[in-house]
Amino acid sequence: MISIVLFLPVIFGLIGLIAKNRIVNRIALVGSAAVYVLITIAQWLNIQWYILPNWLISYFQFDSIGIFFFSVMTIVFASVSVYSLFYFKAHNLNARQESIYIIEILLFVTAMTGVILSTHLALLWVFIEATTLTSAILIYFEKKKSSLEAAWKYVFICSIGIALAFVGIILLSIGSRSINSLYFNDLYNRAAEINPFWLKVSFAFLFVGLGTKIGIAPIHAWLPDAHSEAPSPVSALLSGTLLNSALLGLIRVQEILIRAHLESFSNFLFLLTGFLSIMVSAVFMLRLKNYKRMLAYSSIENMGIIFIGISLGKFGIFAVMLHILAHSLSKASLFLTSGNILHLYKSKKIDDVNGLLKKDPRTGWLWIFSTLAIIGMPPFPIFLSKFLIVKALWLSGLSWLAIPFFIFLIIITFGMGGAVFKMAFGEISSEQPGEQRLGLSAYVPQLVLLFILLVIGINMPQQMYTLLNSAAGFFH
Amino acid sequence: MSNIIIILLGTSMLYVFAASRIEAYVKILALQGTLLFLLVVVDIKEINWLNIAFLIVETLIIKTIVIPYFLLKVIRKNEIGREIEPYISQFYSVLIASAIFMFGFVAAFWAAKTNAGIKPLYFGISIVLIVASLFLIVNRKRIITHILCYMMLENGIFLLSLSVANEMPMLVNIGVLLDLFVGIFLFVIFFNKIQEMYDGNHIDVLTELKD
Predict the structure, then answer these.
(1) Alpha helices, DSSP H only, in A60-195?
(2) What is the pLDDT of residue B165?
């Protein structure tokens, strides 16, 4: 099963690259997504079979939290792969460009799968760096001046960050000399033997390194540029899955600190940067002129909320998992819809977009409902996760922090809601062509994502609850 | 013997602070690769041929020959001569470099005392390499210098990993090397594109995206 998820997309992508045929391309992309969905379902039903070569078997494994992150990634990946069909049509890509796009996406997804499945800290690092390298070309895919700048900043800032994370890994191996292994299981089971000083120093490096990749303030500089300049389906993948995979790395490292009873140190870092991120995105949200950048800042905000949740330990961890799931799906839906808007208006400026509901009512409503989902209107699940995080603040005796938390959230809601409603309502300006309709693949993925969110928010299925709970149970 | 090599490594970094011809940086990079190779050879204690072969490929072939040659070709093709005036002037940079060296030696002394099983001089100089290349990246303006200093940062991390007795599994080593290689390759592709699309090849031209 693991070998399928690791090797099949690469093989499919290579076939597409060699064939350079539109139909083969599409089968490779959607086929890989379908296989991922099947494997996710198999994991939920607890069907296991391993055909991994022996020397690889100790490096990759599905654990409870891995299954959860894998499921989130699969949902986003499947919707992005369907939406990509619309992207190909809208941009009139030739077969060669399509193949390049597809192999890049598939390599990117493979690298993220590697991050999720790795059982070895340094191997996780290798795959995180691989996600940077594979996604950089995707950001530059439209070959514009601005996308080149974004891609350069992204690949360079993240590479430096990840290099610092490697320093952290080496420092950890200094501190854990008696263990002499960087397998997570060994580190967890013998966490008490790790020298606390080296563990703290290495955590600081890993926090900065992986935090750069997660896009947490104040090291978020690449995130708005990369998310706004990438093709919309790629932005959805970046926001919905890439940030999560780096986050999973940090969660796995945090678990070492919890086992070594040093969590007060790491929790402080999580709490501080979490609040800083919400503050930064609240400050910028009011003055943004580009709606894709607006969505990117909202990603920073949500990562901040997740960090706050992680810092609250056992009180917040269930809410964190729910928030990760809900944020990924809502943000993917928003970025995909923003691709529709970009296609309709040919502009990323909020001011240029008017009367979306009159121009294309379907896109308009998807835009409004996805926004309601991300700002946490009931019955969408982000309402529940934010509520649970505030409750966790209360339970951990930090209830006074709920006040700035609410203030920042209100500013963000106000900024985002204002921009979105301005874009959706109003009249179409006279020089714009009237009502337009896009293909089916431009609407269905977002509809499915919103439907899943509504089901989770209104009446969470027992399976989903078990999945979230077992992922939350990863924390000691 | 290994101490002399490490001191030379540190000195090579000091030279980067003083030099301003880009080709000199590439030569330093190749020199650092050679020194790391010698260090690995001097330090060999084991007879695991796979590991030795891998280390030789990494230091001698990739770090000393392939990447510097590749970068030199790019520099000659684009006719880049000198570094442009950095944010902090040369004189103050050298002062800061001495401060970084002092910090590195303090770290080495401290590491010798802690009994954490690390080789003090390796540890101190690797910190010098890492901090100094980070400072150079922040201070210098040319994008090609950033790529070169990123390589020096990687050399520093390599030295740091030599200061620890623990070994990474082969799979990880290969992965790290592959990432490094692809990373440099990508950097150069983007560098060439920036050179084509923008009027100039320093970071001051990248100002299109901001809030």
Answers:
(1) 64-90, 95-117, 121-139, 145-175, 184-189
(2) 67
Q: Is residue B75 part of a domain?
A: yes
Give the A window 159-188 contacts with B, CB below 8 Å.
Answer: 159-160, 163, 166-167, 170, 173-175, 177, 180, 182
Under a CB-based contact definition with an 8 Å cutoff, are residues A154 and A161 in contact? no
Which residues have a Cβ under 8 Å from the Cβ of A382 and sit 6 or more positions away? A323, A326, A327, A330, A373, A374, A375, A376
Q: Which of A181-185, A374-378, A448-452, B114-118 is least confident? A: B114-118
**Total of domains in chain B:** 1
A287–B211 C-beta distance less than 8 A = yes
Q: How far is B178 from chain A (nearest CA, A)?
A: 9
Q: Are A149 and B208 in contact (CB under 8 A)?
A: yes
**Residue B54 lies inside a defined structural domain of this protein:** yes
Cα–Cα distance, A300 to A306 (Å, whole number): 10
Closest by Cα among B145, B138, B181, B155 to B32: B155
A303 Cβ neighbours under 8 A, 6+ residues apart: A214, A215, A216, A243, A247, A277
Which of B172, B174, B199, B203 best probes binding to A when mutated, by most A CB atoms within 10 angstroms?
B172
Domain ranges in chain A are 2-472
Beta carbons within 8 Å of B151's beta carbon, 6+ residues apart: B29, B63, B67, B71, B184
Say what the alpha-carbon torsion angle A419, A422, A428, A432 is, to the nearest 10 degrees: -10
Please give the angle made by the CA atoms of A420, A426 and A429, to the nearest 5 degrees.
Answer: 110
Q: Which helix (H) or strand (E) holds A358?
A: helix A356-359
Confirm if B132 and B17 have CB atoms less than 8 A apart.
yes
Contact call for residues A332 and A448 (beta carbons, < 8 A): no
Residue B41 Cα to chain centre, angstroms: 19
Q: Rounded to whole angstroms, how far apart are CA atoms A281 and A15?
A: 42
The boundaries of the domain holding residue B169 are 2-205
Pairwise CB contact (< 8 Å): A59 & B161 = no
pLDDT tens per residue, range A440-463: 899 999 999 999 999 999 988 898
> With the C-alpha atoms ordered B183, A54, A115, A14, is the resulting torsion angle positive or negative?
positive
Q: For the segment A200-220, what is each residue's pLDDT rounded down to a tens digit?
A: 999 999 999 999 999 998 899
Q: Which two tokens stand for residue A142?
A: 């439209």
H/E/C letters for each residue in chain B? CHHHHHHHHHHHHHHHHHCCEHHHHHHHHHHHHHHHHHHHHHHCCCCCHHHHHHHHHHHHHHHHHHHHHHHHHHHHHHCCCECCCCCCCHHHHHHHHHHHHHHHHHHHHHHHHHCCCCCHHHHHHHHHHHHHHHHHHHHCCEHHHHHHHHHHHHHHHHHHHHHCCCCCCHHHHHHHHHHHHHHHHHHHHHHHHHHHHCCCCEHHHCCCCCC
The partner residue sitting opposite B175, judged by closest CB among A126, A136, A137, is A126
**What sign does the CA torsion over A441, A442, A443, A447 have?**
positive
- Residue B56 domain-assigned (yes or no): yes
Kindly state whether residue B211 falls inside one of the protein's structural domains: no
pLDDT at B45: 73
Tokens found for residue A131: 């996600």
* Helices A317-345/A462-472 angle, 10° precision: 110
**Residue whose structure tokens are 């409902």:** A369
